[in-house]
Amino acid sequence: MRGFSISFLMRDGCHLCDDARPLVEWAATRSGVRLTEVDIDTDNALVGLYGMRIPVVLGPNGEVLAEGIIQDKKALREAIRSSLKV
């Protein structure tokens, strides 16, 4: 799984993002992928696509693995692992 990365789309001041961050970090570590954190407010296109949906976790191919209230770290880990098999 080396070389794969997922993206955690978030913004400063987002309490859902703050709550999800440790779960996303845990799932990425357990899945053996790099985690890239992206503040959507630095890119107008991302704000347009994901502004009201954050936090959002994108898989290696850009597919949405989780969004909104992210509470189940094991389900997220499984979604990450499944995305690596495609």
What does this structure look like?
The chain contains 3 helices and 4 strands, in the order βαβαββα. It is an alpha+beta fold. It has a 4-stranded mixed beta sheet with strand order 2-1-3-4, covered by helices on one side. A hairpin with a 5-residue loop joins strand 3 (56-58) and strand 4 (64-67). It is globular and about 30 Å long. The two termini are 12 Å apart. The model has no long low-confidence stretch (mean pLDDT 94).
Topology:
Elements: E1 5-10, H1 15-31, E2 34-39, H2 44-50, E3 56-58, E4 64-67, H3 73-85
Parallel strand pairs: 1-2
Antiparallel strand pairs: 1-3, 3-4
Helix pairs in contact: 1-3
Keywords:
alpha+beta; 22% strand; globular
The structural class is alpha+beta
Order of helices and strands: EHEHEEH
Net shape:
globular
User: Strand portion, in percent?
Assistant: 15-25%
Instruction: Count the beta strands.
Output: 4
Helix content: 40-55%
Counting DSSP H or I runs of 4 or more residues, the number of helices is 3
- Rg from Cα: 12 Å
Strand order of the largest sheet: 2-1-3-4
Largest sheet: number of strands, sense, barrel closure:
4 strands, mixed
Mean pLDDT value: 94
> pLDDT under 50 segments (min length 5)?
none
Distance between the termini: 12 Å
